[in-house]
Amino acid sequence: MHSDKGQTLPIYIWLTGILLFAAFAFFAFAQAASARNGAQSAADAAALAAAQDARDELLDGLVEAMGQDEDWLDWLDGDLAQGAGATAAAQQLAAENDATLQGGAVPTEVNGYPGYEVAVRTNYTVGESVIPGTEGMHANAHATAVIQPRCDIGPDVGPEKAVELDCDGEIVDIDPENFELDDLPDASVLFSVHLAE
């Protein structure tokens, strides 16, 4: 009987060690998942910031085109955004989420709509764990945000005529002959910005 207890103790110690290692390994995977989630949140925020900056630029271009009697309706397609401040906007949002933008905000196209793709890397690491090397590992993530026009333009509309736009149910009236800046709604009414699926 005494010898049976002596044989059980090493098995108990061995099983306890395995359970502890499994718990630490699970914690390491949880740390890595948390870092990945943080990186993805930073990438999403950076991509949205880049696209929103370009959307604001579209509104500025629309106003300028009206002032110079150009075909301002072209700006409502969303294709004319140059995204001059897109990278700076993406960098700022990445930094606010404790990450660094890798490269810049890269113009892209998704289903015919303009957008911006970004890549970020977390400034923090996964942290120390039972898995070697995690203390120096950073999480990386990518995201793409799209600018999508929200307004329907009729086929008989011209840049010199008064226009009634249906922007996802919100009616916007623009008369280029009697135009004031206050006539324009917020850029979010004319263009939606969302993450690419």
Short description:
This protein has helices at 2-67, 86-96, 187-190; strands spanning 99-101, 106-110, 113-125, 138-149, 151-152, 163-167, 170-174, 191-195. The chain is built from 3 helices and 8 strands. It is an alpha+beta fold and 197 residues long.
DSSP strand tally: 8
Count structural domains: 1
Low-pLDDT stretches are none
Shape: elongated
Range of strand content: 25-35%
Q: How much is the radius of gyration in Å?
A: 27 Å
Helix content: 40-55%
Description:
The protein has 197 residues and is of the alpha+beta class. The chain has one domain (2-195). It has helices spanning 2-67, 86-96, 187-190, and strands spanning 99-101, 106-110, 113-125, 138-149, 151-152, 163-167, 170-174, 191-195. The longest helix is centred in the first third of the chain and has 66 residues, at 2-67. The radius of gyration is 27 Å and the shape is elongated. The termini are far apart. The mean pLDDT is 80.
